[in-house]
Amino acid sequence: MEAAERFAQGVENRVIAHDLLLSVRSVQRRRKAWSQDGPRALASKGPASLPS
Prior knowledge:
The protein is mostly helical. It has helices at 2-9, 13-20, 24-37.
């Protein structure tokens, strides 16, 4: 949710990536989702895969 606040403030992707220890590409994907569906698009959906 911190990313959503920064998107709203207009912070650049590379700055967000550096501060949140993410790749720039990951921030780009999150910004796109946020711009299309708002902050709820960034809510955690749980683990990417179930443990074996």
